[in-house]
Model the fold of this input.
Amino acid sequence: MDLVTFAAPRIAAATAKAPKVETYDAGGSEDPAGGFGTLVRSGDDKASGDAAIDAAHTNAGIVRDFYQQVLGRNSIDGAGMDMKSVVHFGKDYNNAYWDGAKMTYGDGDGKFFAPLSGALDVVAHEMTHGVTEHTARLEYAGQAGALNESWSDVLGEIVEQWSENRSGFGTPDAARGADWLIGEDVMTPGTAGDALRSMKAPGTAYDGDVQPADMAHYQEMPNDEEHDNGGVHINSGIPNKAAYDAAIKVGSEKVAKIWYTALTDFLKPSADFAAAAGATIAAATKLYGEGAESQAVADAWKAVGVTAATGITRATHTAGEAPARGDNDGIVPRWLQHGPPAA
Ligand SMILES: [Zn+2]
Done:
């Protein structure tokens, strides 16, 4: 079959499925009918007037557009899968998660969390877990798990930057001006300035935040759910800081493309931080040649104490079961589900 060399591009363009955005209302149930509840908004339907529903719908569309327009990816699976969201899940539910087929959002308890669909970085973080499931399939434990978390933070934050400043977001200045906070719009609506994580200054997002910003403060933790699968939401501070350091040099658009290419082309499921450093350098070199970009990425990892692995080869990804994530796999880690420890 010679389809690939000759006819495939035209066929792909003509038949590529465009992802549809659909938003469902669970009506406060943790077990909505059919797993979804009632379809309340589809595609270009007018706003429903319900803030949580409309935010989920709008934000899912922005994530779809970012992946399409900036990274050239057709939805979460790369094949146009519909972007489905369920809102009003449970009562006072302080979390949001991707389960392989859909996004689910709680309304928050109003004290520690506002309705979680209101935060674009949260929405984009969770949907990026879906992209990871369909690409590098990073194991959800230890350093690979912290990379899984970090890649979601990096692309989640950059989707938000793009949405707020589409024409200028690629410049280093724009990256320097961004907040690099995750979840600031929905965490403790009564407290200004705090967030789930700070990528610019890991460990400062809230009182009691223990995220390290470099390898000297890496936290060796047991690989079980009680210890955050080996600190996946904790040690992610280290790769997060590396991404921030690279972005203020080459801009967030290039970092998005480099990190995404590392995910699709170079990262393997069991990657550690050294392999991730090597993968992003390989991706920068693939996209831009050896130069300012690959150097900025190398310097960023060095600055957080990670020595890049060499000899990184292309990863071939096999489809299969998504990496297992536990009941603490939502945007809000277990120790924050009832507010920051100091609150
Ligand atoms: Zn996550």
Summary: The chain has ten helices and seven strands. The domain at 11-118 is CATH 3.10.170.10 (Elastase; domain 1). Residues 125, 129, 149, 152, 331 surround zinc ion (CB under 6 Å).
